[in-house]
């Protein structure tokens, strides 16, 4: 796969493009459009053998899962306190 650059501007541009087509689109609808575009573009490849299109679809789905897992893991790590640091409320013992 090619190296791609994700940026907040890219996400905003894509959402703006979907909003022009579907003004009430929420995040789920935007994702549906992205999936439909991927499927349409891949399905329209007349110069590819069907088995190559199927293999590329599998590769793209696996890549999507990889990005999802990476972002989810990063989000979880940002929500957890750094290892070895205390957090919470300390109360003295009642002895």
Number of strands: 0
Low-confidence stretches: none
Q: In which range does the helix fraction lie?
A: 55-70%
Taking the alpha carbons of the first and last residues, their distance comes to 64 Å
Structural class: mainly alpha
Order of helices and strands: HHH
- Rg, Å, rounded: 21 Å
Question: How many DSSP H or I helices?
Answer: 3
The overall average pLDDT, rounded, is: 89
Range of strand content? under 5%
Largest sheet: none
Describe the global form: elongated
Summed up, what is this model?
This protein has 95 residues and is an all-alpha fold. The protein has helices at 8-21, 27-43, 50-79.
Commentary on this structure:
The protein has 95 residues and is mostly helical. The protein has a domain at 50-76. Helices cover 64% and strands 0% of the residues. It is built from three helices and no strands.
């Amino acid at each position: 796969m090619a190296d791609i650059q994700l940026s907040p501007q890219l996400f905003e541009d894509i959402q703006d493009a979907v909003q022009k087509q579907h003004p009430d689109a929420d995040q789920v609808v935007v994702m549906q459009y992205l999936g439909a575009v991927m499927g349409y573009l891949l399905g329209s490849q007349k110069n590819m053998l069907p088995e190559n299109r199927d293999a590329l679809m599998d590769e793209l789905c696996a890549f999507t899962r990889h990005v999802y897992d990476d972002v989810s893991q990063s989000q979880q790590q940002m929500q957890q306190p750094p290892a070895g640091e205390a957090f919470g409320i300390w109360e003295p013992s009642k002895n």
